Each structure stands twice: as C-alpha cells, then as structure tokens.
Hints:
Layout: E1 3-14, E2 17-27, H1 30-34, E3 39-48, E4 59-70, E5 76-86, E6 99-101, E7 104-114, E8 117-123, E9 127-129, E10 132-134
Antiparallel strand pairs: 1-2, 2-5, 3-4, 3-7, 6-10, 7-8, 7-9
Amino acid sequence: MAAVDNVKLEIAENQGAAAALVTYRLKGTPQEVLEDEIFIEAVELIGVDKIAGEDGQNEVIPGVRFERSVTIPSLFAFRSRLLAMQANVLNEDSNPGPFDVRVDEIQARVTLSRNSRVLSTASSDPVRRGGINFRPPVIPA
C-alpha cells in the first residue's frame, strides 16, 4: 500500500513573510506504480501546543495547505513543496501574562489518500520559532 515518510520541515521568515519548505518521500507498491494509480497528496502545517501554558490542542494552521492528485512514478518518489504565507499566521498562541511567550512549534503533516480513504500520514519533527520577551506590567498612576 502507498505510504509517505521521511517528512522534514524548514521555515524561513523575512520582513513579515514566511516560507515553509516541506520535503518527504512517497512509496508505492509495484502494482500501484505500474497501474498509475491516482492518489491525493495533502501537505499542511500544524501548530503544536505542548509547551506549559498552551491549550494542549494541536491545530491546523488555516490557509496554509497544498493538495493535488498525484501518481507515484517509481517505488520511491521524493517531493518538496514550498508553502508561502504571512509570518503572523505561524503565531498560533496568545499569552496575556507578563511574559510574552512567542514560542511556536510548527509541524508539517503529509497525508496520502485514495477514494476519500487515508492510506498514510506522516509528520515532521516540530520546528521552534520565536522566544520569550518580558512585558512589564502597567502600573496605574
């Protein structure tokens, strides 16, 4: 059965714009390759919420998705997808406390499906962006 693995994610940011490079490998069986079976390949970014103070819910980052019909031309096919976005969509956490926690962990998820049935899903290791800034409290006069 067709599968996806070896998902890697790199994120670059510059002047409010961001780009995510997602690379991965598709694997097909000899029969799937010979018969040119058609699959749906979907790439999306996930906001990982496992740091203390976050809500604990991993969420798909809206508006950042690549999807298309593909065949697997050989037993192994290497893919790379470049996703462009505004950098602020990667800030998927908010923290009203005195420490402005702007650490985001982003993960790429690649799904391979056929006939509305998910065959394989694989994710990259999380990529961290941001840091912690101290926001002094406002003292009323």
